[in-house]
Amino acid sequence: MPLLTLYQDHELADIAALVNSAYRGETATQGWTSESALLGGQRTDEASLRADLAAKPGSTILTFRNETWEKPFACAWIEPQADDVWYVGMITVTPERQAGGLGRAVLETCEAYARARGVPTVIDGEKSETRLLLDLVPRCDHAVFSEPGLANYAPGARPVDGLRKAIAEGCRAAAVTRGEKGTLWLTAEDPEPRVTPAFRVQATNTTGAGDVFHGA
């Protein structure tokens, strides 16, 4: 099992080399993250990483390795921003270890790191494969589904029972948007189903409406 550690100042050069090996140059072509056909030069360097860390308080680099004394073979940048929003970037897995599930492990670790610091997570439960929803929903604080998405998450269940399933799996709040019928929702603290009516509007273009709803 890989060890998760926070970066140490003395290994920023090794982290820069890891990132460059995964995205630029001949080594990167061994994996699928190579940008070599589009961009030349380095993607980052020790000085840039050091400057970015100094300029962004609270940011850090999570690293993965087999032993504490080894160089990392995967990493990710994670940075707190405004209003419980965290940025994750520079996700890197050395080319020879790509396509083995490490990238997903890095993302899940970043999510857990942020959640442990009180950052809420939300899923936009649109129509997707049932197996994906079953995997993702238990890792979220708030699950907001469309009607098709909820039906895929809990096949054959009534909407309220589908929401209760999400609560039972660890969500703090669960809801389903139902267009003109409003939003059905409940919480872990108050499992009584409630309905928030929809506003009566003349809809002309609903692009982005769901994103705004989830963001609010």
Give short descriptive properties of this protein:
UDP-N-acetylmuramoyl-L-alanine:D-glutamate ligase, 216 residues, 2 domains, 8 helices, single chain, elongated, PfkB_dom, 4-stranded antiparallel sheet, Acyl_CoA_acyltransferase, Aminopeptidase, kinase, 5-stranded mixed sheet, alpha+beta
| Domains (count) | 2
Cα(first) to Cα(last) distance is 38 Å
Residue windows where pLDDT falls under 50 for at least 5 positions? none
Outline: elongated
* Major beta sheet summary: 5 strands, mixed
Number of helices: 8
Summing up helix and strand content along with how strands pair, one would put the structural category as alpha+beta
Order of helices and strands: EHHHEEEHEHEHHEEEH
How much helix is in the residues? Answer: 25-40%
Q: What is the CATH C-level name of the largest domain? A: Alpha Beta
- Provide the spatial order of strands within the biggest beta sheet: 5-6-7-8-9
Mean pLDDT: 88
The CATH homologous superfamily of the largest domain is termed: Gcn5-related N-acetyltransferase (GNAT)
Write the CATH fold name of the largest domain. Aminopeptidase
What is the alpha-carbon Rg in Å? Answer: 21 Å
Domain Carbohydrate kinase PfkB: 103-216
Protein name: Carbohydrate kinase PfkB domain-containing protein
GO molecular function: acyltransferase activity, transferring groups other than amino-acyl groups; kinase activity
Keywords: Kinase, Transferase
